[in-house]
Amino acid sequence: MPEKFRARIMEERDVRRALARIAHEIIERSGQEREVCLIGVQRRGTPLAELIAENIEKFSDLTVHRGTVDITFYRDDLEHKPAPPAAAGCPVEGKTVVLVDDVIYTGRTARAALEAVLSWGRPARIQLAVLIDRGHRELPLRGDYIGKNVPTAQSEQIKVRIPPYDDMICVDLYEKT
Fold this sequence. Notes:
This protein is α/β, with parallel strands linked by helices. Helix content is 26%, strand content 33%. The chain has helices at residues 12-29, 45-59, 108-120; strands at 3-10, 35-41, 63-69, 96-104, 125-133, 145-149, 156-161, 170-176. The strands form two sheets. The chain has a five-stranded parallel β-sheet. It has a three-stranded antiparallel β-sheet with strand order 1-8-7.
């Protein structure tokens, strides 16, 4: 479906500021815990998780474990699914796990990521960090850490641009035409 550029919602400095704020919130909520596991939802959640992890390590003495999750097997809109992926680099048993994604919309991606993480073990708690919350939830899920709330119409689309998938860091709004 063709789309038309409408607006740049966040420049690189805005994205970096939001990710630093999310990192500080994770540090504040960690309490007595000395480690946290950040799991990026592939694709763009992975580099966002890395930037948050770097900020956490810069501003605290928390140990940050990193991982990624491919939710393809756990999607509810695919008839033929690939084999379930193995845990990707992050020990979850008894840990605080923060799932990191670029945009939360219906909540279905977050649900699939939850299922994936729970198949790896039993974390102490699972939290969700998203750069953009655009509303329109179909499931009762919400972000614990949100970079920016951007109310959108169903006909609009948010695109987060970040290396290595893009040549810049920004967030853009498009209209489906």
